[in-house]
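Would you mind writing out the residues of a protein together with its fold in token form for me to study?
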Amino acid sequence: VEVEFEQLRVTPSISSTSPDRALVESVRFDSGDVFGRFEIIKGPSYHSYRAYNLADPLRKVIDIYPQPQVAAVDAPEPTAVFDPVVPKDEPLYDIAEDVREFTQPRYQRALIIDPGHGGDNYGVHPSANLLEKDFMLDIGTRLGRRLETTPHKVLLTRSRDINLSLERRSSIANTNRSRAFVSLHLGASSHGELSGPVVYVHRYSNSEPFRRGGLRAWEEGQRGYLKESRELAQRLQAALNQLYGAGNSVGEAPLEVLSPVMAPAVVVELGFLTNSGDRDRLEDPEFKEEVARVISETLLEWL
């Protein structure tokens, strides 16, 4: 029995008490899935399950039922599958011992690395063999590997070729209370001479925060972090300029992927795929490793 989540990444709080193994052999949580997936492994007495949603708080309930009881020979009617009565002071269902490691949130205060585009969203693609999404997944994976060797937790919004909406990318950052959000991209221009990295911060069109019902609106998340975002952007810009031999400056733009993020957040464009020099650099695995090194070291210094 698989329970998948398709809107927000989940971090479960799981009981360490084992269930009745005749019904449920084990329960696993697959944190490698984009948004999280529970896998309920059936026991020998498993017969069926019922799933339904409840609100306040929003949750999905899975009831597991055993095989029908075998009626005695002289019984007037067969015994139906029973609907177990759960005492009020007991949990609805328990979870196997083998998932104890997930009892603590895994990614709280994580560094979120967002490899741009993916799936049918190619990003910049001057040719069939040069796709922005592929470059960003490659560099994002290299960056994630470097950061995983540090005391900081790191999470990639995607680790394979899938297309996530901008809102989902921002959701992953906020759900995990990120310390920083770095979205990786490439630039494009009809002027082939434009080159080098450009780091962007979000720009609001007005200076007053917009509030709805006393709560901060989704698109206002970046409002309280603009100063820190700019500081991070300036550090990354300086370090990448040195690597690329460029003299570019930090940019500002209304960026939908950044505006909801409640943490320092930047978009890093790692050169222009329409520039032959940048393109040659980015096709070199050693240079991509250098890009990952520079970003990781700058992030750690900033932290």
Remarks:
- The two ends are 42 Å apart (CA to CA).
- Confidence is low (pLDDT under 50) at residues 70-106.
- The first strand starts at residue 2 and ends at 4.
- The CA atoms of residues 11 and 106 lie 7 Å apart.
